[in-house]
Amino acid sequence: MTQYFDFKALSKLRKKKHLTMEKLAHKAGISYSAIADIERNKVTPNLETLFKIASVLSCRTSDLISLAEGKHAEVLRETETVRLNGFNMRIFSMPDMRVMFGHAEDNLPSDGKSSSHPNINETLFVIDGKCRVNVDGEDYDLTAGEMIRFAGFLPHYLESLTAGTKILVINSNK
Questions:
Q1: Are 97 and 65 in the same domain?
Q2: Does some domain include residue 108?
Q3: Considering the domain boundaries, does residue 74 fall inside one?
Q4: Is 29 in contact with 19 (CB distance < 8 Å)?
Q5: Are residues 63 and 86 in the same domain?
Q6: pLDDT in tens, 116-154
Q7: pTM of the model
Q8: Phi, psi of 132 (to 5 degrees)
Q9: Residue 132 vs residues 52, 106, 124, 139: alpha-carbon distances, Å
Q10: Which domain holds residue 57?
């Protein structure tokens, strides 16, 4: 039989919560042997069992399934580089979000062209320098260490106010 899930990671999560297999089993209302078999990948637990375990570990059932699915960390390389309103943007795309690192070598004025993205929340963090973010016609001037979050469907644009401004933009699905 093909093994689709690896529940060995459950052991690590359990230990982080300072629980023995016995304590987890007792708190979840399932047998010690069930926990041992799950952690050793001898059985694939049903959703009810996962729900009970997740409740004890203070996480969601879907978190346990994701943990057992495999990759816990993934290195991403930039997928493209674009010029946007005076910023050189390095873009990193994932299925559920897009991360952009922007660097403005000079403080050229924005072309004022707005963009909008349905079903996206946009967060912009200023790493260094100053920039202006216009959201739905209202200007927000931000300096290093400040951030703004807004619904991506609103028309918006940004511009650097100082040479060398660095920003991080995160577009996440709603």
A1: no
A2: yes
A3: no
A4: no
A5: no
A6: 888 899 999 999 999 999 999 999 999 999 999 999 999
A7: 0.60
A8: -115, 135
A9: 48, 14, 11, 6
A10: 9-69
